[in-house]
Design a protein that fits this description.
The protein is of the alpha/beta class. The protein folds into 2 domains: 106 residues, no CATH class; 187 residues, Uracil-DNA glycosylase-like domain (Uracil-DNA Glycosylase, subunit E, 3-Layer(aba) Sandwich). Helices cover 42% and strands 15% of the residues. It has 14 helices and 9 strands. A 6-stranded mixed sheet has the order 1-3-2-4-6-5. The protein is elongated. It starts with 13 loop residues before the first helix and ends with a helix.
Length: 332
């Protein structure tokens, strides 16, 4: 058998690149399999500072009459954030949002669309219980809305779920009505960041008027659809696509490429060259990635390698992997 001579450093065909239709970064340097730890914002520290600022508010009747501050609860890195109106009696006792009857109903609502409360982040517009569970007054809404906006900026969710007219007023003003604004996606800009936002009825309102639950159910289905179909771009995912060191084997056989979106980060300690890992560790890494990712495989055939050079065939395989991945993403 005669080995086919191919210059892998040939200039890429512009027509082919236009066909591929994606943006690629090329580098002749071998892949660095160890990922440097990215710079991470210390959300816990920032939330602690925000909580202290709220506790230091002067001349606040809500603070004077409440038992304790009700700040926030849940996953700090959640892509979904729920904002309610104000704490009730049970929340005031326990210092956590949505733990009373409203909280029980909220849990049922989330379960209905396959969301787990512990995977979300929940807070309120106002952090202290109003006397007799009354609705927050306009001056209180204005005062606490700036802290809510800072809270949202720290959590930095992809989707904001606003529950109740007071929470809506804190972010959108008092010129609109919840009955007309609920159930549609809106954009709100906070600190130069745009958030996808939906307004819906507060669970406490639904407990008082059960016939309104049908509207909230429609809103929940919209949220479910948005959450399920959010694209990789919307969720700030990076698609990792590539082939493993194209070499002699690829000159006599098809090229395979993988495209992966990781749902969880991988500890850099286990990201070593696969040749340096034992069989057991490689299997562990394979199982971890398979369990915590959405992935797809693309292929370029031997005939395609003969028709175009090996580098372009690798790009073609990556393109096919990315297309499959996007389909898998919408199914997940």
């Amino acid at each position: 058998m005669t080995k086919k001579q191919i210059n892998q450093n040939d200039m890429l065909n512009s027509d082919f690149l236009n066909f591929v239709d994606d943006t690629y970064t090329f580098n002749n340097i071998p892949i660095n399999r160890t990922i440097n730890k990215p710079k991470v914002i210390n959300k816990e520290f920032m939330l602690k500072r925000l909580k202290e600022k709220i506790e230091q508010i002067k001349d606040c009747d809500l603070q004077t009459n409440a038992t304790k501050i009700v700040f926030g609860d849940g996953n700090l890195d959640s892509p979904l954030m729920i904002v309610g109106e104000a704490p009730g009696e049970k929340e005031d006792e326990k210092g956590k949002p949505f733990v009373g009857e409203s909280g029980l109903l909220l849990n049922k609502m989330l379960n209905a669309i396959k969301l787990k409360r512990e995977n979300l982040y929940i807070t309120n517009l106002v952090n202290y219980r109003p006397p007799n569970n009354r609705k927050p007054e306009s001056k209180e809404i204005i005062r606490y809305s700036k802290y809510l906006k800072e809270h949202i900026s720290i959590i930095n969710p992809e989707i904001l779920i606003i529950m109740g007219s007071a929470a809506m007023e804190g972010l959108f003003g008092n010129k609109i009505k919840i009955s007309k604004e609920r159930g549609t996606w809106k954009e709100i800009i906070i600190n130069n960041k745009t958030y996808q936002t939906i307004i819906t009825f507060h669970p406490a309102y639904l407990l008082r008027l059960p016939d309104q639950k049908k509207y909230s159910w429609e809103d929940l289905k919209i949220i479910k659809k948005k959450n399920r179909r959010t694209s990789a771009k919307d969720l700030k995912y990076n698609i990792i696509a590539g082939v493993d060191e194209v070499g002699r084997g690829s000159l006599v056989g098809p090229v395979y490429a993988a495209a992966v979106i990781l749902k969880k980060s991988i500890n850099s300690k286990i990201l070593k060259d696969s040749k340096a890992l034992t069989k057991e560790k490689r299997q562990f890494l394979f199982n971890y990635i398979k369990k915590n990712s959405i992935w797809a495989i693309g292929k370029a055939s031997v005939k395609e390698i003969d028709r175009i050079n090996i580098l372009q065939a690798s790009l073609l395989a990556m393109k096919r992997a990315i297309k499959k991945l996007k389909k898998n993403l919408h199914k997940s």
